[in-house]
Design the sequence.
């Protein structure tokens, strides 16, 4: 260790670090050294991940630790530079006297940053999700579903189906309740609700719907088509089928809703919907307006003078 320090001091003896010119030259040298080491570290991690064809290395953890190692590397380079320049070395020694006060101030100022950093470590350690997992999470604008694109030291980015990026702090997503659609298996069940009128044939409607879902190219397995409720003016069904992932399940649901509507129209099967009939009735003394709100609601009478 002593010989290494002696060689380092002899290599830098030609630079006068006591003056600003020498300090700036040494700064350039250390910055180039930091860039070289950082690039080598990043490239090394990338090569290790590329050669891991079996998927034994956790991509999320490797990426997070790579970013953290780069921050640690630059901190080490900065400390080494400060130790080499006499002015900065004396300043650092003077600051040690007030390190307790400075640590309190810095801790309060960087409270959220440190919380995100620690939360990032918890995400890497407990692994509630991986890169590429599809999550459903509550955000201020409502419930959003997206794919985990990246996890940095402070933030997690989700990519939605419409190419929007939801940026969440690590502490927020670590404390949030989420649904992971692809934690153990990417398969997702598509749920297709539809209704028919009380005067229609239940078996006929079920047969038509099942025939449509069985012939859909993106459906892997048909589960069932059951009556789920007898509502005020409709018989409600829920048809379920397995799809390869959440995005496919959403597309299957939309396709089948359209196909069921068209098939029911061809077979003259009624799909109940809310409507309102206005009936004008002439009397001898006054005009009465009867408002019919449908088969499941009372008729209103409005008198016109």
Sequence:
């Amino acid at each position: 260790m002593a010989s290494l320090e002696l060689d380092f001091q002899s290599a830098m003896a030609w630079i006068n670090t006591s003056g600003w010119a020498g300090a700036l030259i040494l700064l350039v040298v250390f910055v180039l050294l930091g860039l070289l080491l950082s690039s080598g570290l990043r490239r090394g991690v990338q090569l290790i991940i590329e050669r891991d064809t079996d998927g034994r290395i956790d991509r999320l953890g490797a990426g997070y630790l790579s970013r953290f190692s780069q921050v640690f590397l630059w901190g080490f380079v900065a400390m080494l530079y400060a130790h080499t320049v006499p002015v900065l070395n004396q300043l650092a020694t003077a600051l040690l006297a007030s390190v307790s006060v400075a640590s309190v101030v810095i801790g309060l100022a960087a409270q959220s940053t440190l919380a995100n950093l620690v939360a990032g470590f918890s995400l890497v350690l407990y692994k509630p999700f991986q890169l590429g997992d599809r999550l459903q999470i509550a955000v201020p604008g409502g419930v959003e579903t997206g794919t985990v694109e990246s996890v940095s030291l402070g933030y997690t980015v989700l990519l939605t189906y419409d190419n929007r990026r939801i940026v969440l702090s690590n502490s927020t997503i670590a404390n949030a309740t989420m649904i992971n659609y692809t934690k153990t298996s990417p398969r997702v069940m598509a749920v297709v609700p539809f209704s028919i009128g009380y005067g229609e044939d239940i078996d006929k409607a079920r047969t038509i719907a099942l025939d449509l879902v069985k012939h859909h190219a993106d459906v892997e397995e048909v589960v069932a088509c059951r009556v789920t409720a007898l509502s005020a003016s409709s018989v409600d069904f829920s048809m379920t089928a397995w799809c390869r992932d959440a995005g496919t399940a959403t597309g299957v649901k939309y396709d089948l809703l359209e196909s069921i509507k068209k098939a029911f129209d061809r077979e003259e099967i009624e799909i109940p919907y809310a409507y309102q009939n206005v009936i004008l009735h002439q009397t001898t003394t006054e005009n009465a307006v009867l408002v019919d709100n449908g088969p499941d609601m009372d008729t209103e009478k409005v008198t016109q003078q």
